Amino acid sequence: MNFIIIVPNVVRRYIASLPEVTNNAYGYFNYDNRVVNERVQRFDAPSTYRGPNSFNDMEYDSLVSFAQQNINQGLAKYSAQVACEDALSLAIKSFNNGMFDGKINANKYNVLLAALTEKITTKQAAAKKKEPVLQEHHLRDLGLKRKDIPQAHRVRNVPKGVKQIVQEHGRVKIKEKN
Question: Range of 163's domain?
Fold first, then answer.
């Protein structure tokens, strides 16, 4: 094994001949004589830019609720999933003058889409919740006749939470005022 000992001056001359060293901007900078506290505060207005990591949960919740309000009902009639994707994409572009535009990655989008879909499905499930319909034999058991039961549109001033038996579209239902 041969060891080559290079003299420091030879090394410096070799390095000084490289184009990366000769063609640089070292002369334009004053690294050797630095001034302490060389920066002056300019009192510029703070930047309004907010990065993707600066949003909190409340802002994401408001984005999802904005998307929920703007769901296309015609599209939701055919596919709730597609309607949710469409509403969320539009909300990201337009909510609060595009505050989220270009700042939501695929993982965050999937989380927001799942939250929106969950809200929509629970809302649809609550809307589809049917009121119990009373048959004729139920009325007989209660000692009621169909003519004694009022129409739903004629019942007024019912306190919240009180259940009433009313006729609606030819059916006798138990209805609760919300």
Answer: 133-176
b/e code 112-135 from CB counts within 10 Å (16+ = b): bbebbbebbeeeeeeeeeeeeebe
First-to-last alpha carbon distance for the chain, in angstroms, is 94
Q: How confident is the model at residue 50 (pLDDT cuts 50, 70, 90)?
A: confident
Least Cα distance to 98 among 44, 57, 48 occurs for 48
Q: What is the pLDDT of residue 169?
A: 82
100-143 confidence digits (pLDDT tens): 999 999 999 999 999 999 998 888 777 766 667 788 888 888 88
Provide the strand spans (E) within the chain: 133-134, 163-168, 171-176
- Tell whether 143 and 123 lie within a shared domain: no
Question: How far is C-alpha 50 from the geometric centre of its chain's CA atoms?
Answer: 16
Report which of residues 85 and 27 the model is more confident about: 85
Residues 6 or more apart from 132 whose CB is under 8 A from it? Answer: 173, 174
The answer to the question of residue 162 being in a domain is: yes
